[in-house]
Every structure is written in structure tokens, then in C-alpha cells.
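Entry for the shared binder. Reason: the reviewer on the internal report wants the predicted structure included alongside the sequence.
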Amino acid sequence: MIPYTVNIKLAARTLTGTLNLQNKTAVDWGWQGLIAQGCHSSILIIDPKTAQTIQVLERHKANVVKVKWSRENYYHNLSSPYCLRLASGDASGKIIVWDVVSGTAHCEIQEHSKPIQACDCKLIFIMFFCPFSPVLTSEGIVFITDFSYSKPPGSAGKKVYIASPHASPAHTKPAPATAPAPTGAKKALNKVKVLITNEKPTAEAVTLNDCLQLSYLPSKRNHMLLLYPREILILDLELSQTVGVVAIERSGVPFIQVIPCAQRDALYCLHENGCITLRVCRSTVATEEAADPEQSVQELVYDLRSQCDAIRVTKTVRPYRMVICPVNENKAALMVSDGRAMLWELRAHTGKAATNPSSGLSPLYSPVSFCGAPLGPNQKKIQDLSLNSMIGQTLIAGETLPTSSNQQEVQLKFLLTGLLSGLPLPPFAIRMCPPLTTKNINHYQPLLAVGTSNGSVLVYNLTSGLLHKELSVHSCEVRGIEWVSLTSFLSFATSAPNNMGLVRNELQHVDLPTGRCFAFRGERGNDEPPIEMIKVSHLKQYLVVVFRDKPLELWDIRTGTLLREMAKNFPTVTALEWSPSHNLKSLKKKQMAAREAMARQTVSDAEQSSVESSVISLLQDAESKSETSQAISAREHFVFTDTDGQVYHITVEGNTVKDGARIPPDGSMGSIACIAWKGDTLVLGDVDGNLNFWDLKARLSRGIPTHRGWVKKIRFAPGKGNQKLLVMYTDGAEVWDTKEVQMVSSMRIGRNVNYRILDIDWCTSDKVVLASDDGCIRVLEMAMKSASYRMDEQDLTDPVWCPYLLLPRAALTLKAFLLLQPWSGTFTMDVTQVDYSEKDEIKGLIQEQLNSLSNDMKSVLQDPELSLLQRCLLVSRLFGDESDLHFWTVASHYIQSFAQARQLTVSAAEGQAQSEGVQPSPQSHLDICHDVLCESSYFQKFQLDRVHLQEVKRSSYEHTKKCADQLLLLGQTDRAVQLLLETSADNPSYYCDSLKACLVTTITSSGPSQSTIKLVATNMIANGKLAEGVQLLCLIDKAADACRYLQTYGEWNRAAWLAKVRLNPAESSDVLKRWAEHLCSPQVNHKSKAILVLLSLGCFYKVGEMLHSMRHFDRAALFIEACLKYGVMEANDSRSAVASLTHYAHKLIEAAFLDYARLLRTLGLREGAALWASRAGSAGEQLMEELFQGEGGIPEAILGEEVVELGLESKE
């Protein structure tokens, strides 16, 4: 007969617990939508949407101090696919780059000559993965501008210091009489105004040791924040000046971290009590109540808009770090030192605030657009999609206040959407439930019971790795657990000893389904020696309780009665084990024979044949009853050893207990510490590290010295004929094969691992489970190597939306499937309804991803009102594709902006009334985080607003001089003159500034003066005074020349800034086009940035051409399609003849559509390929024939769509 073996498939995994202090900064939320968190030497990968740990990476030997996800700011295709890459650095200086899906390391980086300290590793990380971050030192900030991956920086960087200034009376404005008296926090801040200087400060300077963090503000260029425990300083780096302070009142809770947002000028702040607050920058628009516009803005103010609940902070529980979702910026995760991850989501609720009007909070409005386009009348939207879809932009001076008719006022609230908790602090006692058998296969669950130091027992399901139940069982540390069935267990705990050395013993019986818990020994347990161990017999009939200085007790588990309490002269037990042999089978046979005889006696011989079947059923019934009833008491045996090493054999049957044979001690063994028995093999382990293997059948014994010290525990693996043995020592563990009597695998602290093992068990016939002192429980293969696993082998409770888990080709197919809706005229979320030639397994994985999308997201994706541009933006958000998201944000805005401008031009040409100064853009303007890509009018307003703020906050001559320079570049000559005349007479620059003021006021547009100034400016630029020369050129309205000089001298960003604030659209466009050409040059090769610049200029044909030449086929085809739909393909391209452009445009359109069709064919989407090929001219027809070769022609559905699309194109 072929042996029937079943092995439940359990993935290797790690159950993690509390964090180490060095893990504090090791957390990152990637564009891929997953959170990476360092836990001791492991790295957890958490899915925040479903609050599940989906991977644990193990290869580091030291504590992980930093983790960083790879950026997704590149175009994705088959050669640069969507993949999960993570870098992690540990305290020894090793950096590992991971392939997270397979759980393997791509590469390892370490300088072997000397270990790097934890802080050095963080510094390497900052430089390697965020190369333009400033570096915080003990006395200042170092800015390294010429950092590159290939060579070390050429200079030591620009070092700036933080000092407290002596504000001169000339630079401090008197406070208005009506102003309220400053409160405690503000008074303290007024005393110590902090700014940046280039000179080393004196002893009274503010030290940087209090500074907790510094970060750039991604929402505003050239701004940085410094975080102190009680305030956040906002610095303008161009002026080296503090322009805003967020202060906490005296009774407030100090900050420990702040994360600035990019989509809106807002700050997520983490406080010491674990509370997360959101502060949004206050609008600088002068309100009607403000009488004096000069006083309308004094500094950047960040208003508290929302806060979440705090946590209970103790010595061992404190908040460590917060991370926010980089894609949507409306979700935050809080990492707590006890291993918890709290997942908060920001929600917007429509309705007016019920706060008092004196609070000064202006209302927040939700935008009237969705995914970068105005919302249709019946269009579905997801309001909480991202931060910029929840609240509108912060208004700046010069902008109009929103009218309440089309904008809804919103309130922001935090909602706890997920909680991930880890294991408590070690030590642990672990025990796996009884093994899988053919009888229990239908209802078996692989449950692991974990006894903790606080008296609770956690039961984990090892298939999912999730907590099944948490039971508060004991009042002190759990010492051991033994299962008595698949759904119940016994656990014991001992309290701290009193002065007599006696303790309170707790032995509890727990029923898992009901959670019922009762004291198994009844009233016994107070003031007695501690329980050393409990052992349950193989048939789960009997229980032995072993005490330290008291004879053992023998209990009947089924009835809960004490069978025997051994006499006082009973030997002291050092190790004990039940025998696997018993007489249950022979008893059952006897009972069955007796029942059969009784059954046969009741029927006569004549009726025998007719009732044969009923006898069989009677017997089957009897058998099932005999299994469930406890009438049968089978005979079982156990062996134990005493302090001398003598082995005793005892038999238990029903209520009778009999002494058996005694085997004298083995001279080669020390004091026996543990025994394991399976089949005909008995193994003994002693305190000296010796293992003694007894073959009971052959009556042979063999001693093996392991030289590993005290053998703490030994356990046989489950499964018939499986003779593997797991051995635990003080310094590690080993797996032995008892048939061959040889070691299979070994693990030793300091050699393979850096943690100490606390407890061991088998969880299946080939996997072990280890509890360790780093607070983790690991399920490992028998080889006891790393516990990282393939994520596609995971059995997750909730499906996870993460296209990065798919094969590269499948991820791109999923993206195309979502982008090219509708398919054959119908919107669908079922990939099987599409003509897609691929293996069913891959189709199934893609369908799983689609099914894991929320219902709201599915309904929006299937909404016919969703435009192509909105769809592209939404899908790039879903995929966390940074490059796609930036491209489609700018493209969507300017395509609509130029389309609207074109409509206005057409309507004006047709004689319709058109008001002056109409904003062409449907959503007013692009967010300021895009900096020079914004419209010139808005960019100019923002810069004027900024310089006004700098002017108000200036506190030294240096600042005044920089303000005057900025005002001159912005064309604000009157205000610049006022500042120049403020210079005090004892200042060395007094004469120069006075002359400069005269020059600025007396500049005329006469030819001679202009040519003289131009000559002087040119000479100054030639002699290295670029900034001064540019300033002079701006004075005589030669800003276009100034931009050219700046570009010649490599100051491309400054040239772009000046073009935006000073030049008319035509001149500005020339400057920016030159910049785009420079970005495309081989030396720079920043084509993606050049494309964004060209988009802001409306050079859509050029953008299409570049995208196609860069082989970004899907982006090129969809972009051209969007331009055709809005009629802006030729919006702002400087070709002489429109006819020739139309010819070029048609060639480009056909080439782009054909290449996209080929790409779709390689992905297996034949229907999509046919649709795009049908619009690609003669070359497309050839591809169509290839696609439908031997199928009797092209389907009519596609031909029908082709006619419609071609009609649309010709109309455009």
C-alpha cells in the first residue's frame, strides 16, 4: 500500500514584536503604496490599505537604522518595469538593495576596512538616495551643491550657522497700538528670533543641538523648515531669513517630527503623545476686515486644521516615527515603539465649522475639479482621493476670494482605518497545536499558542500570520503551554517567589472557540513550590505536573480529576516524556468483537442475511461512539530521570498507576535535562551538551557530544516515519536526523544570527518555529536560514492592490486595460471579457488586482463621464507612477488651458463679447509646487507676495539689501528705493546705496543713458559681477538680454525665474525654449524636465515628437489623442506654415498610434492593438492583417469604432 502523506503548506515567515531604539528612523512609505519598517535586524513590508504584513526581509546581522524605497520617477516599460526595490542600512554600515517580491538581495554594499556607525550609515543613505538634502551638523547646516554619484564633491560645501540676531531699531517696526499682547510662546519667540548667517556665531548663539529635523518644503521652492521641540521655523533660503514660525503654547505637547506636503502648503506634525496634527498655511489675501493692507501679512501662519487621538505613552510605549503617503498625501502611519502601526486617513466633510469667528480661521474650500479637470454635472468623484482633491490651494495676495456659490466649505478629520500590532516584549513560551492528520484534515487550522510575560496567550494562525485570538489567561509570566485537542490547551504560570521560596501556581484549561478558561487544579496552587513542567500524554488522556521540590501529580484530563499525588520519598524529576506506544487499538478490537457478538446473538440464523447491512451500520455506530466516549481508558507509559540519571518507567491505565523497570544511569552522561520519544527511538539530552540516542528495538544506545553546553529542549518532528529532531541550546539550535544519527542543520548566536533563542517547536513536518529575544517568532525551513519568502506564495486574508507584485508584462497589461476603457463599447472590470491572449494563471492574477480595487474606484473608472486626461491621471495615481503623475498633471492643465484660450479667441473672432483679462485656465492655475512651470501671472504674484513677506521679516542690513535686489528684479523700483534709503550713515555701503537709489529714480528711456548702462552692465558681467549686471539690465527693461547672459553663464534656473517674472509671453517663451534645448542636450539629458517646460509653453507637437522619439509609446499616443480631442495639437508651435505642420502632425500621429498598437500586441491585447492600428494609416492596415490573419477579416466592431475615430480626427 502506498503511504498517504499530507503536509499543509505554510510559508516561512516572521512574527515581529517591539522595535529597537535604533529602528526609530527606519521607516519609509514608498510611491509603490507600501510601508517598509525596520524591526531589530528585520524589515517588515506593510500594506497600509489592508493593514497586513506581506513580507519580512532578513539578511542584516545588526539593527536596521534606515530604509528607503526606490523612486518611481522614470518611464515604465518592459525593460524598466514596475518592481519593488528597497534599500536598507544597518548599524554596522551594511547597505542591502532588495528585490522585495522574491525576498532576495540584489546587492550588498559595505566597506570592510572598518564598521560604519549608525549615524554614518544614515549620512550615506541621505547622500545616496536623497542627494540634494542638506546635512545637519552640531553647529550649523552644510549645503553640498555639486554632489554626484561618480565623484566626491569638489568643495566642502556652504556652511551656514544659526544665530540670534541683534535687531537694530532701524529694522524693527513698532507694533501697532491695536495689536493684542503676545502670548507666552510668542513672547519667547520674539526674544530669540532665529536666522541663518554665514559667520560663525558667538557663544550666545542658539545651538543646533535642540534642532530635531530639517526638511525642504516641496510645496514652495527655496524654503526649508527647522523643527525644534516647541516650534517650527520656516526659512526662506534665498534671503537666509525666518519667514514663519509655528509655535506651541506653554501647555501644548512638544513636536518630535514634521512632514511637509507637496500638493498643498501643509505640515503633518507628530507630537510626543502620539497625536498627529495637520496644519495648513493661512491665506495671505487681505480680508475686508483688515484696514491696513501693510499689516495684512506679518509671517507665514500655519493653522491647525485637524488632529487625531493621542496614544497612552509609558516607559516602553512611545511614538517613534510618522510617514505619509507620497502619492496622495492624505494618509499617515504612526509607528509606535511597541511594534504597533496605526494607520490614519484624512477625510473631508462638507459643512461649515462650528467654531467661534474670533479664532481667525478662514474656511477651507473643496476644489470644483476632479483629477485636474472641471467636474461634469453627473460625474462620479472620489473626494478623499488625495490632499489636492480635498482642499483648494492657499490663496496669495492679488488673488480673488472664492465665491461660495460653486465651492463647498469642508472640515478635515482623521479616521483610524487600520491597526497592526506586534508581539509583546519577550520572553515567550510557544507551542504548536497537534499536527495535521488524515482524520482532522477537513477542519485543521495551523495554530501557534504564544505565552507572554504579561500572562496573556496569543494564538496565531500561521497560514495568514495574523492574530487569531488574544486571551488574558494568567496574572504572571506564562511558563509553558500544552495542547489537549485542536481547540483547547493547558497553560501554566508561576508568580515571583516569596521569602520562603514558595509561589502561586496557575494551571488553566482554555477552550479556544468559546474563550472559556478555568483553573484545572481547582483551589490548589497557593504557596507551593513552582511548577517546572507539564506533560500531556499522546492520547491526551493524562497529564503529569512536575514541581521543583515536590513530588509530581498525575491527572486525568478528560474528567479533571487527580489520579495520584506521588509519595514524599518519590525521586526528584529532571526530565520526563510520555511514550508514543499505547494499547488503544487492541482495546478497540476487543470492544468491537464484544459488540459484534452481542449484536449477532440478538438475531436468529434465518434473519441473518437480511440484517447483515444493519449489523454493519450498528458496528460503525459503535465504533464512532467508542472513539468519542471516554469509556475506554487506554494504557499509556511515561519515563523520567532523577538527579542521578536513573531512568524510571511508569504505566498508567484508568485509575491504576504501576511502577515499571528501572534503567541505571549512563556513565558518559551528566544530569539529564530533557527526553524525547518517537517510535522506537528515545533521545536524552544533558546539561553538558551530550545527546544519547536509544534504539529500543535493537536495544542499542549511542552517545554524541555536541560541545554546545546545556541541552535545553528536544522535540521530534510530526509525521509518520519522520525521525527529525529539533534541539535547543543556550546559544542556538540544531536539527538532527535520528535514523542516521547526524546533524542536518545548525544555528548559533554570533555566527549565523544575532539573537538568542528562547523556545522552539515544529510547526509542520519540515518547518520549525523559533521564539527569540529580539521579540520575534520565526517560522523557518529545516535548514534554519533566512525567513524571507516569495510574496506570490503568500496566503493573504485580504487581497492587496499593488500592481508591482505582478510580472512586468502583466503590470503593463493591467495599466493598458484601465487606460483604454471602454472595451468594445462597454466599461468593464473583468479582464476575461477582453480579447487578451495570455495564460489563465496570469489572467487570474490581473483579475485579483482588479477585484481588490474599492467599489468607489471601480465606479469612477467605469464612469463614461471620466475624460481621457482624468483617466490617465487617476491610473498614474493608482500605480504610484511618479513620472506619469507629474507629466499628466502638467499636460492635463495646459491642454485644457490652451483649449479654453483657443475657444475664447474663436468666439471673439466670431464677434462674441469677450471681457478683458479672462483667465484661460479652467482651474485658475497650476499648483505653486511646480514652480517655473506655473503661469507667469500667478508666478509673479507669488514672488511679489514672497518678497513682501521677506521685507516684513528682515532684521539686518544684509536682509534689507537682498530684499532691495529682489524688488529691482521684480520691477518694484519705488519700494526698492525706500529700502536703499534706509541704510544708516555709519554703514560702509551707505554711499553706494544712496547713489543706487538716485540711479533707480532717475533712469530715463533716452538712448544715451540706456546704452551707457547697458555697456556698464556688460562689463560688470564680463568681470564676474553677474548679479549686479543683470540688475542693471532689468532697470532699463532689458530683462531678455539679462536672461541670455544668465543662460550663457550656466544660471539656467535664475534665467527661467527672471523670464517668468519680467518678460512678455513671446520673450519668456524664447528663453524657456532655449532652456528646454539645454535640458535635452547630451551633457545634461533631462528630457523629462524639458517636456514639462515645453508643455507649459503649449508646444504640444514638439512634446508628442519627443515622447515618440524617446520610445514612450503609450504616453505619446494617449497625449496626442488628448490633444486631438481638445483641438490643440498645433496650439503654440512656431513653424511658419500651418499646412506643413499639419503634414508633419499626421505623420507623427500615424507613427505614434502604430507603435502603440505594436506595444499592445506584445502585451497580448489584440483588440486594443487593432483599434489603434486602424487609426495609423497604411502601415496600420498591414498590422491589422497580421493581427487577424486566417480569421476571415477584421471584426466589424473595430471597423465601426475606426470610422468614428477617423471622423473625429479629420474634424480636428
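Summary line for the report: The first helix runs from residue 118 to 129.
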